[in-house]
Design brief:
single chain; disordered C terminus; 168 residues; mainly beta; disordered N terminus; 4-stranded mixed beta sheet; 1 helix; 4-stranded antiparallel beta sheet
Length: 168
């Protein structure tokens, strides 16, 4: 009976894995107002609490709070906009993801180190701020470096933290 039960659990696990659904969040970063320095040769990266959220890019898991993770590199889409598509399992719907953008592949030129996020970010414990996003399903989000709102000032944030903009 124990062998039969083990086989049954294995089959159920396989069926669940085969039918598990994912959703993709498209993160964009508009660097138009970025005047601190040039864009690093490593480009713009995203780092966050992706490991416990099961996040991946092109089927490869993100390392999380690791700006050196090449899978967290955004693609230069032109016109000072960078983007990345991150896939999450449906099991994390309703959870909040915390993240920040980084210029390069190491900490130091990361977004949120200036006071511009002080009223809308979440303190990161290192004199900077992180963004948060409620994982609600597939979304297209565009942020502006070190601003709580779009670059033109629209889409103000709520008291709970940075809200996504350009939701489609």
């Amino acid at each position: 009976m124990k062998k039969l039960f083990t086989l049954f659990v294995a089959v159920l696990s396989f069926v669940y894995a085969a039918t598990a659904q994912n959703f993709t969040v498209y993160f964009g970063m508009d660097m138009s107002l970025y005047t601190d320095t040039t864009i690093s040769p490593a480009g713009i990266r995203i780092a966050g609490d992706f490991v416990p959220r099961g996040a991946s890019v092109n089927g490869t898991s993100l390392q999380g709070w690791a700006p050196g993770d090449v899978n967290g590199a955004l693609t230069n889409l032109g016109n000072n906009v960078w983007g990345i598509a991150i896939t999450f399992p449906d099991s994390v719907l309703g959870q909040t993801s915390t993240f920040k953008f980084v210029n390069g592949d190491s900490w130091g030129l990361n977004e949120g180190d200036t006071l511009s996020l002080a009223n809308c970010g979440v303190p990161d414990g290192f004199n900077g701020y992180n963004r948060q996003y409620l994982l609600e399903g597939t979304a297209f989000l565009t942020y502006c470096w070190n601003l709580c709102t779009r670059c033109d000032g629209s889409d103000a944030v709520s008291a709970a933290g940075v809200n996504p903009v350009d939701r489609k």
